[in-house]
Amino acid sequence: MTVDQSIRIEETGKDTIIAFVDKKYSHSLRIKSNTKKNIQNYFRKIGKPKIFPIVTFSVAIYLLIRHFKLKLDTLVIDVEYLGHESTIKNIILTLYRIDKTIEPDIYFSNIGKEDMAHILAINIHRKEIKADFDLTGSEIVRFVNYVVGHKK
To answer: Does residue 24 register a pLDDT over 90?
Structure first.
């Protein structure tokens, strides 16, 4: 299964789409621009603004998989945040462990523009099709708190 993002998390003026596709499934979520701004403000408030994009991206991937209750053997994530792959992987695996679910093997690759996850994400961004659901700020913050150890 591959995961791709259209519009980076830190680009708070536009919605972010995260999509995944494999032989059986294709699902997606949207994080609205105003939701991203609220989450970014939350990270500022807790004194961790620099980790906003990485943690939010990681949590969003996990919540997309969790939402559809998918059991994955392998997860291939497009390289969106070069040099932060181990952090992203650790955050996702931490959330799997908190939920006490079987962890997939996680890899990173430049999946390219021909990959179906990229095509799905860009088509949603272009409003040619709709995302399966919108991720809320409160849902993201709840899981962010598990990762950063902050109690709200």
So the answer is: no
